[in-house]
Design a protein that fits this description.
It contains 2 helices and 3 strands, in the order βαββα. It is of the alpha+beta class. It has a single domain, classed as Alpha-Beta Plaits, CATH 3.30.70. It has a 3-stranded antiparallel β-sheet with strand order 1-3-2. Strand 2 and strand 3 form a beta hairpin. The longest helix has 20 residues. The chain is elongated and about 45 Å long. The N and C termini lie far apart (33 Å).
């Protein structure tokens, strides 16, 4: 029996600029509203939401099962 070759996992991140106080609330609301969407993607192992209030940047870090999974999404 031949051993199955595992593909390495792949990480990808992105960020967006968030304007002012109202933008922060909108960003958090977006995180909450899209959680189920991301949870339903089988090739996505984990998505971590990130936010830096000082720079007003928010986004996510995505941990995929493979590099091919990124291309499919």
């Amino acid at each position: 029996m031949q051993a199955r070759k595992e593909e390495p996992h792949a990480d990808r991140g992105n960020y967006v600029s968030v304007a002012g106080g109202d933008g922060t609330r909108k960003l958090i609301k977006n995180y909450e509203e899209t959680t189920d969407k991301w949870r339903s993607i089988r090739e996505l192992m984990r998505k971590s939401h990130i936010y830096d209030a000082d720079s007003r940047l928010g986004g996510g870090v995505y941990h995929w099962k493979s590099v091919a999974a990124i291309a499919d999404e």
